[in-house]
Structures are given as structure tokens and as C-alpha cells.
Amino acid sequence: MAHRIVDKEKLSENVYRMEIEAKYVAEAREPGQFVLIAYDNDRSERIPLTIADVDLDKGTITVIFQAVGKSTIEFASLNVGDSFDAVAGPLGNPTDIEKYGKVVCVGGGIGNAPLYPIVKALKQAGNEVISILGARNKELLILEEQFKEISDEIITVTDDGSYGRKALVTEPLGELCSKGEIDLCVAIGPAIMMKFCCQTTKKYDIPTIVSLNSIMVDGTGMCGGCRVEVGGETKFTCVDGPEFDGHKVDFDQLIKRLGSYKKYEQQAAAEHNCKLEGKL
Ligand SMILES: Cc1cc2nc3c(=O)[nH]c(=O)nc-3n(C[C@H](O)[C@H](O)[C@H](O)COP(=O)(O)OP(=O)(O)OC[C@H]3O[C@@H](n4cnc5c(N)ncnc54)[C@H](O)[C@@H]3O)c2cc1C
Ligand code: FES
């Protein structure tokens, strides 16, 4: 079954929002879940992307992705009217949405995309939500307006100070935690960012949920490609996650595994970029 792209927008350098027809996925999806998407069933790998939003009337899901390698660069070259061969899901366990009280949600870079539906659901469940959004610079900061609409307070930071406060996300996070009013933290972004957010919240004993972006192959718990160590046990991100207790995750191992295929990924992206030159 083909899944047509009905809308496409470039949000920032290399970041795209796409609305894709996937009626049954949209109907079944809960916040925190993801899909595996393939452009061409015969020759493409299947890429995990979080379902950032759904439109039940239109039968569509929205994904927001960064073109970082071969497959995501290929996705970015597609346009409205083109179709994906497969949109499998919804996969993974939904976020545990409850009324916790005061929740701080931290997004880094493309991590703002998977964070968005979680913040929306936490707010709807009656929580007070403070969103901290971070990016390397102003151009890379995405979804600020959308977060403003669903957060009680928003703090923006950039590494280079080109927008908002010049800081890493852990700075305002630490300040909020030290006031002793935070009941839960949700942190989604690069593994290194999540690692330091967890170190910050651990000092104050604040429960922290992270969503892991492990490398995935089959997405069914069979191949072991997405394995992570959590609390000394091996877990599979696709079926046991993608969200885990951040204080128990072995981030150093995750970071090492994310870098395992770097050489081959760079080669594949370079060859692919040459073929697509001028199309993006
Ligand atoms: C459950 C889940 C949800 C995700 N949701 C989103 C999302 O909503 N939006 C989004 O942009 N990305 C998301 N990702 C990450 C996305 O799947 C990867 O960026 C994608 O697989 C890269 O494929 P590629 O072929 O384009 O690049 P590759 O050639 O595979 O990699 C290119 C570069 O990206 C890095 N990379 C590869 N895989 C990952 C990964 N899983 N996470 C982080 N860096 C990676 C590599 O180190 C390499 O430097 C998610 C991952 C998971 C597991
Ligand atoms: S992707 Fe294969 S076990 Fe999770």
C-alpha cells in the first residue's frame, strides 16, 4: 500500500516536516510511538521516525526528520504527491501519560520533534509543563511556536548565543531542579545531551524519562540491533522502549554503538548525495 505525501515543509537547515497518508497508523497511534518508513520496499532500509502528530480527519501522520544520511537524504528529496512504500506501525510503547504535577521537558535539536506529542499529551493530562528547547544555533531551533502553544513556560537556549540564552540545556534544567519543584523530567535529544540531563536530575532525585534513538533494523525485537543496557539488563529499544528510566541507561555504550557504522554511513551518504545533487 502506497503512502502519499500530502504536505512538506522545510523547517530549518536539513530538517523537514512531512504529512503522510497512513490512516490506520494515525488511528492507533499514542504519544511516544514511532513508525518504520521505507521509500522503496525492494531497495530501501526501514528508518525509525517518531509520529510527531496525527490528523484523524485526513488520515495522516506527521513526521519531522533531519536529513543526516543516505535514507533520510532520500526522504528529503521526495515531494508532495510522491509515496512511501511502507509506513509500519505504530511501534514501541506509548509514553506513560499521567498527572505528575510540574514536569520539565527538555528537547535538543531534532529531539524537539519526538518531544512535541509528549508535551501536548502531558499538558492535556493537567500537568504544568516547562519546555526547555536547545539547539546549536538559531537556524537549527525547530517548533518553538508550536511548543509555546502547549507549554506553561518555555526556555530557549543556543550553544552559540544566536537566539535565547547562550547555554546548554543542562544549565536552566539544573536551576529549575534546584528549586525543588519538579516532579518529572522528560529529555529527548542527542545521546550525549540525554546523558548530561540525567546526571543533572539524578543529583536532585527527579525521575527522568528518555527516548532512545538506537540504530534499528527490523523493529520487532528479533535482530538485536537496537539493544541497550538499562539497569544492567539488555533491553531492545524497539519493543521494550523507546522510553526508559534515564538514570538506569548506559549512555556510554549507546554512544559507542551509534558510532559503530559511521565510516559506512558517511560513504553511503556521500555517494547518494552525488546522485541527488540539485534535487533537494
Ligand atoms: C525510535 C526512534 C525514533 C526516531 N525518531 C526520529 C525523528 O522523529 N526524527 C529524526 O530526525 N530522527 C529520528 N530518529 C533517528 C533516525 O532514525 C536516524 O537519523 C536515521 O535512521 C538515520 O538514517 P540514515 O540512513 O539517513 O543515516 P545513516 O547513514 O544511518 O547515519 C547518518 C548519521 O546519523 C547518525 N545516526 C544514524 N542512526 C542514528 C540514530 N538512530 N540516531 C541518531 N543518529 C543516528 C550516524 O551516526 C551518522 O553519523 C529516531 C530513531 C529511533 C530509534
Ligand atoms: S531493531 Fe531489531 S531488535 Fe530492535
TrEMBL record:
FAD binds at residues 64-66. Coiled coil: none annotated. Residues 1-97 form the FAD-binding FR-type domain. CDD domains: DHOD_e_trans_like1 (cd06219). Its cofactor is FAD; [2Fe-2S] cluster. Binds 1 FAD per subunit. Binds 1 [2Fe-2S] cluster per subunit. Keywords: 2Fe-2S, FAD, Flavoprotein, Iron, Iron-sulfur, Metal-binding. One of its GO terms (molecular function) is flavin adenine dinucleotide binding. One of its GO terms (biological process) is pyrimidine nucleotide biosynthetic process. PROSITE patterns: FAD_FR. NCBIfam families: PRK06222.1. This is Dihydroorotate oxidase B, electron transfer subunit. It comes from Sedimentisphaera salicampi. The lineage of its organism: Bacteria, Pseudomonadati, Planctomycetota, Phycisphaerae, Sedimentisphaerales.
